């Protein structure tokens, strides 16, 4: 989000808009470096989990990475959506933090999801991290295969689709 807002502030986004590139292509061009970063971070996480903490990986690596790809795209699209709303880098950072805090608190990362009040579970269900954490636990600790995580991947895919559509619509509005 911050990188895209920075382009707006510097005026280089105007140059991108004046080229014959479609909004989807601009979005992909801005997001692809972060895909690489996401893969590196996940690789480090998996190696550290196994070597430093002896966390097993019983399930399908393919299942893990299919779910990871959906989760990564959902998060990158959320960043892109934030960049279409934010007017400054500071505002983009604040909005990013505003989405990060509920993700940490309501996804089941810090507190057990089942122990949360109903309203918190409802909000948590709309957060991609909730489903990704379930997916990771199922694959790594319970030996889940793709067929076992279809529900979690479907939930992430639906949330991702909503965010992508909202980001593209909002981006097109900012072009007008």
UniProtKB/TrEMBL annotation:
Its main location: membrane. GO terms for cellular component: plasma membrane. The keyword Transport applies. Residues 1-174 form the ABC transmembrane type-2 domain. One of its GO terms (molecular function) is ABC-type transporter activity. The keyword Transmembrane applies. InterPro entries: ABC-2_transporter_component, ABC2_TM, ABC2_TM_bact-type. It is a multi-pass membrane protein. It is found in: Cell membrane. The chain crosses the membrane at residues 31-55, 61-83, 95-113, 149-169. Keywords: Cell membrane, Membrane, Transmembrane, Transmembrane helix, Transport. PANTHER family: MEMBRANE COMPONENT OF ABC TRANSPORTER YHHJ-RELATED (PTHR30294), MULTIDRUG ABC TRANSPORTER PERMEASE YBHS-RELATED (PTHR30294:SF29). Belongs to the ABC-2 integral membrane protein family. This is ABC transmembrane type-2 domain-containing protein. It comes from hydrothermal vent metagenome.
């Amino acid at each position: 989000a911050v990188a895209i807002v920075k382009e707006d502030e510097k005026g280089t986004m105007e140059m991108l808009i004046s080229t014959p590139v479609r909004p989807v292509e601009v979005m992909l061009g801005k997001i692809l470096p972060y895909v690489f970063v996401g893969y590196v971070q996940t690789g480090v996480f998996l190696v550290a989990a196994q070597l430093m903490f002896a966390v097993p990986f019983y399930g399908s690596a393919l299942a893990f990475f299919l779910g990871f790809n959906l989760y990564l795209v959902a998060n990158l699209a959320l960043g892109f959506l934030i960049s279409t709303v934010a007017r400054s880098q500071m505002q983009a950072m604040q909005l990013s933090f505003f989405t990060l805090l509920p993700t940490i608190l309501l996804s089941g990362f810090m507190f057990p999801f089942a122990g949360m009040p109903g309203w918190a579970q409802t909000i948590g269900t709309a957060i991609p991290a909730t489903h990704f954490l379930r997916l990771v636990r199922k694959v790594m600790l319970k030996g889940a295969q793709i067929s076992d995580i279809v529900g979690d991947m479907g939930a992430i895919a639906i949330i991702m689709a909503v965010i992508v559509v909202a980001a593209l619509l909002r981006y097109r509005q900012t072009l007008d």
